[in-house]
Design a protein that fits this description.
This protein is an alpha/beta fold. It has helices spanning about 40-45, 70-80, 110-120, 140-155, 175-190, 200-210, 235-250, 285-290, 315-335; strands spanning about 5, 15-25, 25-35, 55-60, 85-90, 135-140, 160-165, 255-260, 295-300. The protein has a single domain, classed as 3-Layer(aba) Sandwich (Rossmann fold), CATH 3.40.50.1820.
Length: about 325
Amino acid sequence: MADWVPDVLGDEFAQLTLALEPDDEGDVVATLVRALPQEIGWWDRLRGRVRMLEDVDVLYVHGWSDYFFQKRLARFWTARGARFFALDLRKYGRSLREGQTPGFITDLAAYDEDIAAALDAMGRDADGAGSGRRLVLLGHSTGGLTLSLWASRHPGTADAVILNSPWLEFQVASARPLIAPVAELQARWAPRDVAPQVDLGFYTRAQEAVADPDDPVEVNLAWRPAQTMAVHAGWFHAILSGHATVAAGLAIGAPVCVLLSARSATPTRWSDDLTRADSVLVVDDIARAALKLGPSVTVERIDGALHDVFLSRHDAREEAYRRLERWVRGWSSAG
């Protein structure tokens, strides 16, 4: 295995390249980023000070056309004693190699290999067990869909699942059963066919409009373009299949927390309304779909939040962190 090296985020972050099985485009890798908590001094230890998450590992998975860059989110966890890890999946961000089709995959279960490699590098068994530490899965958008499906297929592995605007249902839910057979046929015969680009870049513009100089975020536009990466038929079919699996009901035994904006806005033309709503998903449909993840699901709706609730304007962002703190504190105490 390769060694941990300094990450592009600098400071306390490091990265590890995870070699995966090659595919028809050549060598394939995933990249694990870590941030570790500072050690508590001997005097605090002597006085019995213990941070509430010192026995916790967090594994974060990003969304579509995305990668991990949220320093503050990592520090939320490390400040409470947890070890934080983020996975740039194959063909995304740090893991994208020349000649590869960005983000392309034909089955979300293929990411099992990426996740297994990450868990092994975290000092856990490939199925997530074996370390004696609690495991929190944290996913955004498509990453939330991927981790939800993974957690359901690996019962008893995760101790908690936290989802930031997970893409659990197609934007026109009633149309999914009609679209799915066509998507399956296209994926079978021409998996790399590209759908027309419908992203006008308004979601990126909304994030820039609410950017906070006191809480700066730097984004690599080569890894997270202003307009989404090309959508290929094989990938689209994989997503619809994941949505259908969620609709049929998952069996995540661990408690689940879903963070969502209070409302959606349609990004057909620019307006300030897009800076106070989710312009990617239909959040009411996501809230309903979330109830099919398992027997213990909390849905937190945040007024004024964007699709990534932790990149929203100041008030909504701080509220998102307060809600996360409250849920994590309750979960940890119960455990």
